[in-house]
Amino acid sequence: MENKKEKIFVSYTSKDIEWAEWIAEALEKEGHTVAIQSWDFNPGDNFVLKMDEALRTCPIVIAVLSEAYLKSYHCQSELTAAYAEKNQRLIPVRIDNFKVKGLWATINYIDLVGKTEEEARMLLERIYKTPERKSKGFPGKTSGDTKLQNDLPDTNRKSTRPSGIPVPDERIPAYAGMTGVVGMPTNNLPDRNNKFTGRVEVLNDIFKAFHTNNEVSLVQSQAITGMGGIGKSETAKEYAYRHHKEYSHIWWVNAETETGILAAYRSFADRESLSTPEDNSETIIAKVKTWMQEHNRWLFIFDNAENQKSLEKYCSSTGSEGQHILVTSRNPRFRNYLQINIDVFTESEACEFIKKLTGKTADSHFKELAKKMGYLPLALDQAGAYMNIHQMSYKSYLSLYNSYNVALLAEYDDDPEKKTVATTWQISFERIKENLPAEILLNLCAFFASDNIHTGWFQLASSALPDELQSLRDVVVNDLKYKDAIADLTRYSIVSQKGDGVIGIHRLVQEVIRHNLKQEQPKWRNFCVSILNELRYFDFSTVESRALFIALVPHIDSVTQGISDEEATEVVARLYHFMGYGFNDLADYPKSLRYYGKALAIREKVLGKEHPDTAATYNNMALVYDAQGKYDLALEYYGKDLAISEKVLGKEHPDTATTYNNMASFYRIQGNYDLALEYNGKALAIREKDLGKEHPSTASTYNNIAVVYKEQGKYDLALEYYGKALAIHEKVLGKEHPDTATTYNNMAGVYYAQDNYDLTLKYYRKDLAISEKVLGKEHPDTATTYNNMAGVYYAQGKYNLALEYFGKALTILEKVLGREHPYTKTTINNMTYTYEESGKPEPFEEWLRKKRKL
Predict the structure, then answer these.
(1) Which end of the chain is more exposed for a tag (fewer CB within 10 A), N or C?
(2) Mean pLDDT across the chain, nearest whole number?
(3) Whole-model pTM above 0.70?
């Protein structure tokens, strides 16, 4: 009796399409109806609906089982659905040489690894009973044939089914984590290393220590320490995967830099809806620490921390049992942590590891390779990856290794890590040299910070690439070629893909590359300086612009730190000037002055003490001192700027007018209105003569004069000059320009001073209409208008309306500027006074906390 032919769905990942189609063809020839994506899913089909239909209508599901399959998010979803369906038979067919673990180890599977076509057909008889039939295109080996197959599908396959349908890219969604493990906690863990080896005792010790009540500190902290490349991070990650059931939250923190820690904290705050991603860094840290104190059953892993001190402000110190901190670091001194130092693999562990990596059996060169790699996990891992990519034997790899080892051993003889790891990387460097743009990109990355390198930066700065980098310039303007160049770096494990358009490079790799460049290092640093200069900007009014600045800071630091005072150029000074400007806008005045000081030292030396750019730095430093309330220093630096501008540029130059304008603002703040009007008058005379009476800069000076008259109580004169400014703005810039809105705002301030609240609100509304439409509802200028309107409502005794508008302003300022910015603090102070006047019963802090949660 002929077996009943059941409909079969073949599930596979795109890498294994050749195997999937061979299995499907064999099944169809035996009379089965087969559903397979490459034949049955047509362009324009709804992929999700088609997959759902196939899974519902096919009693049998075949999983083409490989390592790539188990890493595929889509395939995991398909198989989860099949496994949960009681009326379906799930039949795994293993076609890749790896150890089947977890759920799959409990299911009987058909193993085609290493089988001939005849053997494979006999094994497939578990699905059907039929006479043997000959088929073309079997993707395994044939009897006596050991030639390796390529990864390309058979484009000549004869079939009546549709062909050539592209397989969709497989993407793992955000926060997927812990692939293939059921019941996972909230986490951002990197993918699990399914070739993890050894460390059993270490993992057990970590578990025991965390789950033994610690009376000294309820937040239990441990540090895994050891040399670079020893496997500290992999051990911490494996602990998290093995013991995930103990936690509700597991969060991975790149602790190599403050930027990395803050990024992880921001991500956690986003995930838990603690705040907006644009909050000030100190606020984000405080929120996460508060969360740590108020919750338990969590594990935070701080990976690659510099030292204990670098973590002090980030880790909560009080809480309850079940609050676990695990640190990995090269630094062996973590006094207040239970410290676990790990060493290189034992010989047996190293041999087991390399076998897992390569899938090759042991031979006479097997142990020699493990020893040559110093039993260092990172070196072994890279050796295995290289052997797999190039399909090399242990002997061939050893021969290549020995050819490159001699030169490096002499220089790194006192550092086993560099001796083994650098040699492994050197082999890959030689391969990358075959692709010149990739080699150039790698050399540039060697001088950037090791993490969070945005590949798009090189594209934006393509015009700054010198003639020597012409080949990279040609590539970065072509997205496809550029992606290929980056892929060449990632395939040799030299750089790692950290996200969409973001790569990272291990700092030891950077050291080796910089060493190899030798006397050419200054030249390559200057290339990087030129690239970063192209990325400068001076508008920090948006969340995105501030985030970009924070991202660029560690890279500018990294690129410039190796430049000596003798090598520093004006181009370097521009980068420091940009840093000073950015930190001033972020209200981090000490850092702003530090970078302005660096810029000034270079400019005084390279350009001279009387150059206009030197004067510009004096001016900007004066602005910072002014903001700090250090008025004597502010006046001193304004004076330095003015002396240069008047002498070099002349008393009628537009830049001199700018200096007069800034000094006028300084004297106004001091209450010295006569000097303020004198310097405003000097600026106005230059601008009316040089730019004309209808130029926006001239209007700006009219505006500044009006401000002085307002503060003097001369409201008619103030309105007169505001009127002059408004006429220019409306005529030249238009009635919906932000500068026009500013003038409306300022005129409203005069009416407010006159207690004319109706006209005040009328002009504030004119300002608000423009700001919301042109600048947006999250711009700092829009917040200023909300704040000002709230002040009017407060003066009218309309406290609920005042609190509403203060709240609108606060929402914007906290998001864009952060909670620690002076403008934000001022708004909170205004709300405090208003709340107290309103007579509400509960404490202001409690009320504000509730408002923020709404």
Answers:
(1) N
(2) 80
(3) no
